[in-house]
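Re: that chain you flagged

S.,

Sorry for the slow reply, it's been a week of failed gels. I finally had a moment to sit down with the sequence you sent. For the record, here it is as I used it:
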Amino acid sequence: MRSLCFLLLLTLSFTSCKSSKKAKQKDSQVVINAKRALKNYDNNTAIVEDIEVSKAPISETKPAITKADAITSYALQFEGVRYKWGGTTSNGMDCSGLVFESFRANDIILPRISRDMAKQGDKIPLRKVQEGDLLFFKTANRRNNINHVGLIITTENDIQFIHATTRGGVIVSKLSEAYWNNAFVEARRIL
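Prediction finished late last night. Pasting the structure tokens below so you have them in one place:
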């Protein structure tokens, strides 16, 4: 009886193991139809007959979540939060606070001020931006410094970014909007 249990456990373990962590995740269900699995186990012998093993259809699953996905998802939960200078919570948020907290929640520490964030990572051309990259802006200010940052959430059809504005709070905007396009300075990749 022990050898039969061992044989069944061994068979099941081979049919359900994966070869590596990098292998695509696949949903598979192993159905075992064992007819007369134990026909005769007198004298500590077991006869296993008519075991059918079939696999249900395999469906593709989503790839593992990336760091950029995690950061943008975290930022998007603040959409609609009112603007508060120096804010970093759902009670109020400013642009650099939104980016700072979104990265910090994913174990990446950035400077707290947008002009200091603009010194981090690598400068990249707009044609190469991806989700999770940062956009920096100079809006009307006396010092002519970078004073605004946004986090790219998608590049499909148009670059969209989440940021906090004094009028709208935390919103999603498009870089193609005239105001943001004119104020744009550079894009940087932190990840």
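What I noticed first: The chain is about 25% helix and 25% strand.

Talk soon,
D.
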